[in-house]
Amino acid sequence: MIAPRVAPPDVDTNDPIEGSVLAHQPELLHAFLRLYGTLWSHGELDQFTKEMARIRNARTVNCPICKATRFSGARSEGLTEDTVDKIRDGYDASDLTPRHKAVLSWVDAFLADPAGRHESLHKKLLAHFTPAQIVELTAGIGLFMGFSKIAVSLGGLPDEIPVYEQPTPEVPEQP
User: Fold this and answer.
1) How many angstroms separate the CA atoms of 95 and 51, rounded?
2) How many CB atoms lie within 10 A of CB 112?
3) Residue 95 gets which letter from DSSP?
4) Is the dihedral angle over the CA atoms 140, 143, 147, 152 positive or is it negative?
5) How many Å is the Cα radius of gyration of the chain?
6) What is the C-alpha to C-alpha distance for residues 84 and 163, in angstroms, rounded to an integer?
7) Over the stretch 64-111, which tens digit does the pLDDT of each residue have?
8) Which domains does the chain have, with CATH numbers?
9) 3 state DSSP class of 166
10) Integer CA distances (angstroms), 65 to 27, 58, 157, in order
């Protein structure tokens, strides 16, 4: 098992990504942070919706850090823990909006059957999002899934972490 915190002892970071196993590959980490910051802070899709997709993925992959993190941009757009509680299985029966139910259905389809025939789901998505927003959402789901699986598979994560708010990722300055 690889230790999750690899930042040098004299570097104080509260950022779970910068202090994660990814820090073993600084150039890779920086490239990821640039892409992740662009996705979160320079996209066309609202952060509330991206956060719902990220949290649905976190629950599916079972990444304790991802499940506990809440980005401040989504919070400022109205994401509450009451909403987060509805991102569980059975969300179709909740009072989430049809827009957000479509997003969660897309996360599930992406994770379980990415090559499946999802024409009706695509129609639902197009009723609420532009093609560019759907591409951004899908790219986000891919990043959320891939990097949360990296964290989980390399191990060393606690079983449970209290919910905490983290600044929304921004594009980092060049090292």
Assistant:
1) 18
2) 9
3) S
4) positive
5) 16
6) 11
7) 888 999 999 999 999 999 999 999 999 999 999 999 999 999 999 999
8) 68-166 (1.20.1290.10)
9) strand
10) 22, 8, 8
Q: By the 8 A CB rule, do 38 and 128 touch?
A: no
Q: Tokens at residue 29, please?
A: 């980490």
CA dihedral over 60, 151, 114, 100, signed as positive or negative: positive
For the chain, the residue count is 175
CA 23 – CA 15 distance, rounded (Å): 11
Question: Bridge partners of 71?
Answer: 166
Question: Taking every pair of C-alpha atoms in the chain, what is the biggest distance, in angstroms?
Answer: 53
Give the integer Cα–Cα distance in Å for 68 and 57.
12
Encoded tokens for 163: 């919910």
- Contact between 50 and 43 (Cβ < 8 Å): yes
Q: Could you report the per-residue pLDDT of 30-66, keeping only the tens digit for each? A: 888 889 999 999 999 999 999 999 999 999 888 888 8
